[in-house]
Amino acid sequence: MNIRHYILATAGHVDHGKSALVRALSGTDPDRLPEEKARGITIELGFAHIDLLAPATRPNETVPIPVSGSAAKKPGSTAVRSGEETGTGTVFRVGIVDVPGHEDFVKNMVAGVGSIDLALLVVSAKDGWKPQTEEHLQILTYLGVSRGIVALTMADLVPSTDSVRSQVREKLGGTPLEEAPIVATSVVTGTGIEELKSTLASVLAQTPAQRDLGKPRLAVDRAFTMRGAGTVVTGTLTGGTLRKGQAVVIEPGAKSARIRSIQSYNREVEQATPGSRVALNLPDLQTGENANPASAVSRGDVVVLPQMGRSSDTIDALLEVSARQAGAKPMKEGRLVRVHHGSGNSPAHVYFQGASALAPGERVIAEFRFDAPVFAFAGDRFIVRDWSEQQTLAGGVVLDPDAPRRRFRAPGRKQFLHTRSEHPNDPVAFVSSALAQDGAIDKSSLLAKSRVDAGEVERAIETLVRDGRAALHGHWVADAAWWQGLHRQSVEAIDAHHKSHPQEIGFRLVDLRQRLGRQATQGDLFDRLVGELCRDNGCARAGVAIRRGSHRPALPPHLHSAGAKLRAALAAKPLEPPSRKELTTDNDAVQAMRFLLQSGEAVEIGDELVLHADHYQRAIEQIRAHIQTHGGASVSELLQVLNTSRRIMVPLLEKLDRDGVTLRQGDKRVLKPARTTTPATSM
Questions:
Q1: Can you give the pLDDT at residue 109?
Q2: How far lies 676's CA from each of 146, 671, 673, 679, in Å?
Q3: Residue 661 has what pLDDT?
Q4: Exposed, middle or buried, 135 (CB in 10 Å: 0-12/13-18/19+)?
Q5: What per-residue confidence (pLDDT) applies to 322?
Q6: What is the DSSP track for 505-542?
Q7: Greater pLDDT, 239 or 83
């Protein structure tokens, strides 16, 4: 048996029979609160589910459905009883979210329709199209719901449904649901219920199941405590699979937890897949007013994996107001609004690019600055309502879930957001815009907070590399123009340093790193750049510096005189030169001495002793020859060999000890044995 998971949500005006229709379809009453029973209206989200048999794939084809136990299906029914196993064919397991229709509970309605595959728009055949019908349709449209069915309820109360059918079809014109099937039903007589099930199955057969992106998110719509189990959260799972025993994080707040058990449609399961209603037992967390904030969970939170990033207090998005809201006052920027995303709603101030207000039929790039962090993905859709929760103002799609607040109107930022707004569903546009903004990104974190899976990221990178717009550098992918600019900037900096400081062997790597900035020096990216500079740009590393391969250090003109004096002083008495303090009496002499040491023309023996490199090498040769001949030598003996003083000989021998040329044994020096490698013996 092949099971495909879907989520269906009701929508429509209060008292049009949504809950009764769900009960007729599934056998489950979605109204669970005493207040709902007493008032006869839905206040909170209700849940049910139904299994539907996929339609036959060829005309007159039937699929056998063995019925377990003594259960039997009604003749012609498309529904499969909960728990039945089908021998062949596909079953659509449909989670149903029943939403409130009253205008006072629209915020609860929005919390239930954020991740659905199909809408069941309910309109009373007796009352027709009503204000909440229109608002719910706008919300569905803003959220990108493109598949739906209209159920005309209470068909037994009117002689004909033709008039209301025409009205509904007219109201749906120009919306994604304009071609939606319309089915007349009555829960009293049973009229149309089986037809509605069959129609649901037919529409679902044309609806792709939710993809597993490897990025599971469960927007919490209920959180409660069960005796003996602890905290349980429920929600609709999207984006990936969750498994029993898995470590998860609750956002916002990065609260760690581990899944003790999972239920889906009243069954214990080892794992839950996208498009399912899911209950997670998270005993590490708490609920209620007295819960510790560090481990509290409630509606609006999101269960994610630790590697999926953190929440943000700023989101950039493409925002639009439907032309169907004609007559509504323009939405002004700077306004405090409520942003409904996932199962929560959060206060935020909204700002626009290039506009001060947004009128019906218009769209604009907007920035939402939240009072508290929210967790969103690029590509997510959301609803904007007024602060008093009286009116739906607009809908939008997230372009950047981690927006830098201070750069909203910067030219580069505008281009980034424009590119994404023009292609909100194109992985190539999302990858290229991210690279254009950030320069280079570790592939493992590229678009981590997006509705793009790893395969799509890889294919987008391949496309950009093939087109010459991106380049791969190990686990980094870089914008090609930006990377070439780094090469150019680095070479220019090295050349400029050679020109202004010809006496130095090269440009210090630490200074080049600082010159290029944070983007170019994250992780091991800078080392990769240096490697390419040496391979492709004629550069070479020189210790802690980098230089052009053709560069030869030379004293600048203004230090020629100081350099000549130092060379003369070191040459006059090869093994009895003046002290370093005597040699460097002014700034020019200090700079000239630094050049002689860096270039290797002179050698620093100790803090106060410098020898010319040629004389230093000659001294080593004499010491080595004497020791080889005599087997060892004292300081006094070597003083006579070199014809110098203890001021020179003692620090010279100490340096040779440090450098591994000689080895002190008592009051004598011997040559340090060369390290030998023991040959391997064969067995």
A1: 61
A2: 77, 15, 9, 9
A3: 92
A4: buried
A5: 93
A6: SSEEHHHHHHHH-TGGGSTTHHHHHHHHHHHHSSEEEE
A7: 239
Q: What is the C-alpha separation between 247 and 332, in angstroms, rounded?
A: 43
3-state SS assignment for residue 429: helix
Interval 35-49 mean pLDDT: 59
Q: From CA 355, how far away is CA 363, in angstroms rounded?
A: 10
The model carries a pTM of 0.78
Q: Are residues 99 and 155 in contact, defined by beta-carbon separation less than 8 angstroms?
A: no
Residue 424 has pLDDT above 60, yes or no: yes
Determine the distance from the C-alpha atom of residue 93 to the mean position of all C-alpha atoms in its chain, rounded to a whole number.
Answer: 31
Q: Are the C-beta atoms of 524 and 557 separated by less than 8 Å?
A: no
3-state secondary structure of 491: helix
The band of 325, judged by pLDDT with boundaries at 50, 70 and 90, is: confident
Residue 108, φ and ψ in degrees, nearest 5: -70, -35
Residue 565 has pLDDT above 90, yes or no: yes
Cite the DSSP H helix spans in 27-112. 34-39, 106-112
- Among 514, 509, 550, smallest CA distance to 531 is for 509
Phi, psi of 226, rounded to the nearest 5 degrees: -110, 135
Write the DSSP assignment of 575-629 as a string of letters: TSPPPHHHH--SHHHHHHHHHHHHTTSEEEEETTEEEEHHHHHHHHHHHHHHHHH
Higher pLDDT, 83 or 543: 543
Rounded Cα gap, residues 379 and 429, in angstroms? 12
The pLDDT score that the predictor gives to residue 31 is 55
Distance CA(151)–CA(388), nearest Å, equals 31
Q: What does the alpha-carbon distance between residue 584 and residue 502 come to, in Å, rounded to a whole number?
A: 20
Q: What CA–CA distances, in Å, run from 205 to 4, 320, 396?
A: 10, 31, 28
Residues in the chain: 683
Which residue is listed with tokens 């996932």?
342
* Burial class, 88, CB count within 10 angstroms (exposed 0-12 / middle 13-18 / buried 19+): exposed
What pLDDT digit, counting tens, does each position of 300-320 carry? 999 999 999 999 999 999 999
Structure tokens at 558: 């203004």
Could you give the angle at which helices 509-516 and 525-536 cross, rounded to 10 degrees? 110
Contacts of 517 (CB under 8 A, 6+ apart): none
The predicted structure's pLDDT at residue 205:
92
State how far the Cα of 592 lies from the Cα of 564, in Å rounded to an integer.
9
CA distance to 484, 494, 614, per residue, from 539 (Å): 15, 9, 28
Q: Is the pLDDT of residue 111 over 80?
A: no
